Each structure stands twice: as structure tokens, then as C-alpha cells.
């Protein structure tokens, strides 16, 4: 069973994890149908970063009658509770991912918008060193690298029309 981080404090997080309906309720949220369905969607999706519109389209395709406003409301509630993290990548639209309690950074393709997650201990150490040398203590950070895919046969590259 997957576990989702609900809250953290400071640089060393104190983690409360959501694993079932009861835990959802203890986070201050009732276990409503829309909340449970959207949480399940994130848990089962092969795509980790979903926009409100992505979620709405999936629900419509499944024949579920849920309005876009409800999707936005649930996503905002999950973000406020710490279940989801919101990101604003180059596309300008917000995307959400499950907050599973582990830090990672993002590599974003500027050709197709695909996002790859990565963790690099050397980059993390360097960021702390840079901050310390300048008299800062990092409390949190976010790193997104925007790049062009150099893979010859990338399945995510947009195909030329013609």
C-alpha cells in the first residue's frame, strides 16, 4: 500500500502519512467519493504529474459525473493537506503529484513537456554548501532543469507534420 505525506516541518520533516480512509479523515478531510476517486487516480496513474484538466478528462472518459470545479477544489484541499504537491513548469499550467515524502528534482523537456524526476546527492550537497557559504540555511528548495531531449528515437518527441 502506498503512503502519502500529509505534513512536514523544517528541513527534517515530521511525516504523517495517509494510507487509508481513516488517515484521510485524520488529515481533516472527509472521505467523500470525489476525494477517494481522485486519490486513487493519482495512486494508479503511470503519469506522475497531472493537471486538473488531465484528471477531469480521465474521469469523464470513465463515465464519472464530476465537474471541473470539484476537481480543482479537491486538488486544492489535497495540496493544503500536504497530500499533493503543486508545480508550475514551463507550460504555465499547474500540475500535481503525490507527496510521498521523498525529495526529488525535475528535468522538463522543452519540446514536449515531459517531466522526469531525479535525485542527485552531489547537487544536493552543492546547494547546501552554496547557501552556507553565503550565510543561509536551506529550509526547502525546488530545482527544475529545462532541456531539449537528445535521444534519437525519443517516443515523447512531437512528430513532424506533413
Layout: helices, strands, pairs:
Elements (H helix, E strand, L loop, with lengths): L3 E4 L8 E3 L2 H6 L6 H12 L7 H10 L6 H14 L2 E5 L5 E5 L6 E5 L5 E4 L2 H13 L10 E4 L15
Parallel strand pairs: 5-7
Antiparallel strand pairs: 1-2, 3-4, 5-6
Structure in words:
This protein has 162 residues and is of the alpha+beta class. Helices cover 34% and strands 19% of the residues. The protein is built from five helices and seven strands. The chain has helices at residues 21-26, 33-44, 52-61, 68-81, 121-133, and strands at 4-7, 16-18, 84-88, 94-98, 105-109, 115-118, 144-147. The radius of gyration is 18 Å and the shape is flat.
Brief descriptors of the model:
disordered N terminus, single chain, flat, 162 residues, 34% helix
Summarize the model shown:
This protein has five helices and seven strands, in the order ββααααββββαβ. The chain has helices spanning 21-26, 33-44, 52-61, 68-81, 121-133, and strands spanning 4-7, 16-18, 84-88, 94-98, 105-109, 115-118, 144-147.
Head-to-tail CA distance between termini: 46 Å
Ranges with pLDDT <50 over ≥5 residues?
Answer: 1-17
Rg from Cα? 18 Å
How much helix, percentage-wise, in residues?
25-40%
Strand percentage, roughly? 15-25%
Question: How many β-strand runs?
Answer: 7
Broad shape: flat
Element order, helices and strands? EEHHHHEEEEHE
The count of helical stretches stands at 5
**Largest beta sheet, briefly?**
3 strands, mixed
Find the structural class using helix and strand composition: alpha+beta
Mean pLDDT, rounded to whole units? 79
Specify the oligomeric state.
single chain
Strand order across the largest sheet: 6-5-7
Amino acid at each position: 500500500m502506498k503512503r502519502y505525506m500529509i505534513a512536514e516541518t523544517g528541513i527534517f520533516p515530521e511525516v504523517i502519512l495517509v494510507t487509508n480512509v481513516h488517515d484521510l479523515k485524520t488529515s481533516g478531510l472527509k472521505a467523500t467519493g470525489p476525494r477517494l476517486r481522485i486519490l486513487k487516480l493519482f495512486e494508479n496513474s503511470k503519469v506522475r504529474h497531472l493537471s486538473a484538466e488531465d484528471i477531469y478528462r480521465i474521469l469523464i472518459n470513465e463515465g464519472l459525473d464530476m465537474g471541473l470545479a470539484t476537481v480543482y477544489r479537491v486538488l486544492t484541499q489535497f495540496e493544503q493537506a500536504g497530500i499533493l504537491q503543486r508545480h508550475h513548469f514551463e507550460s504555465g499550467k499547474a500540475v500535481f503529484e503525490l507527496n510521498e515524502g521523498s525529495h526529488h528534482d525535475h528535468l522538463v523537456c522543452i519540446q514536449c513537456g515531459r517531466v522526469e524526476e531525479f535525485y542527485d546527492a552531489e547537487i544536493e550537497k552543492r546547494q547546501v554548501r552554496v547557501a552556507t557559504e553565503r550565510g543561509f540555511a536551506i529550509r526547502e528548495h525546488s530545482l527544475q532543469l529545462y532541456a531539449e531531449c537528445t535521444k534519437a528515437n525519443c517516443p515523447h518527441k512531437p512528430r513532424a507534420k506533413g
